[in-house]
Amino acid sequence: MFGSLLGRRVLNAEDTPYITGVNTPMREELTIENLEVVGTIPPALRGRYLRMGPNPMHPSPSRHHWFAGDGMIHGVRIEDGKALWYRNRWIRSNAVSDALDEERTPGPRHLFDTVNTNVLGYGGTTFGLIEAGSTPVVIGETLETERYTDFAGTLHGGLSAHPHVDPLTGEMLAVSYDAAKWGTIRYLAIGPDGTVRREAKIPVRSGPMIHDFAFTGRFAILLDLPVTFSLISAISGYQFPYRWNEDHEARIGLLPRDGGAEDVVWCPLDPCFVFHAVNAHDAADGSVVLDLVVHDRMFWRRTSGPDSERCSLERWTIDPEARTVTRTTLDPAPQEFPRCDERRLGQPYRYAYTMAMIDPFLGTGLFKQDLVNGTRQAHDFRPGPPPVRIHLRTGP
Ligand SMILES: [Fe+2]
Description:
This protein is mainly beta.
């Protein structure tokens, strides 16, 4: 995602699994209609299933990073038990538009304009998202890039790869960081009218990478962890200039939803890294409960993608009075990309869904975590029986 921002020197030739095998970038934009359905699509399911990821037009195996490169959105429209179409389209950054000899996409840019990470529907609009810089893009019905947007001039910088919609207030919330501003992050609340109604600037040190966040009724939860901007990596030409930083204090910040920087309750914790939170809520005893996937460390030796040695599902209980974080492992099995029913965001909930990282480069299963009963159900997509296996958790 930083390829348009930074230099492109070739520095090493480590193996890059993210542009080979099943991850080989698509070379064409396809429109396939009336798809064959294997099994049954529930008739009540109606809409588009969308996903986005990097799909570089001109990948460079020796310097590619999983998070870098031109974005591509894929979609399937489902209606009345039928799969009406599949489409894949590159996000029209200036580089992509120029390469395709098309008119450039209108709308305001910030820092860079590659968008390749996530897609989210809000207020009837579909947004393509990235962190650390670019303004979001508006995606059309047939996956065309319509325009870049700064929410009618109210978004002063980039947004985030993972905004979340509070089902109780209808607001879209985000924690944003900027690859060119290492001393500040921003908490944003966007209203249903599509404009930023609240921005809180929070001082930080060293430019931490903050991919996701969580919220409760009272707090936005800030993950200030020791992966930070690396000027040496940027100058050296790495596409992704963030590295593990032993000198950066790991801490969790509780920002009151209507508060400012001076109101943040910071709580130290042992070094670790988090890409994704599952959910959080306020407990009756005044503590904050946060569920998330935790990596032991990140970006400390490989330059092409994640390199943690352990990741597991944890529950962090944060005491705002004592400023302590108590960590409990819910499931030690490797897993990532957690989600819950988004109607339960910010509130107590029961089920989390995660990708089982059976293969480090290829998630081939899903876990359904029952956080009330402490059990886990697994579905393995690899060929061969049995298709569904049930596990009883052996951990706490
Ligand atoms: Fe993510």
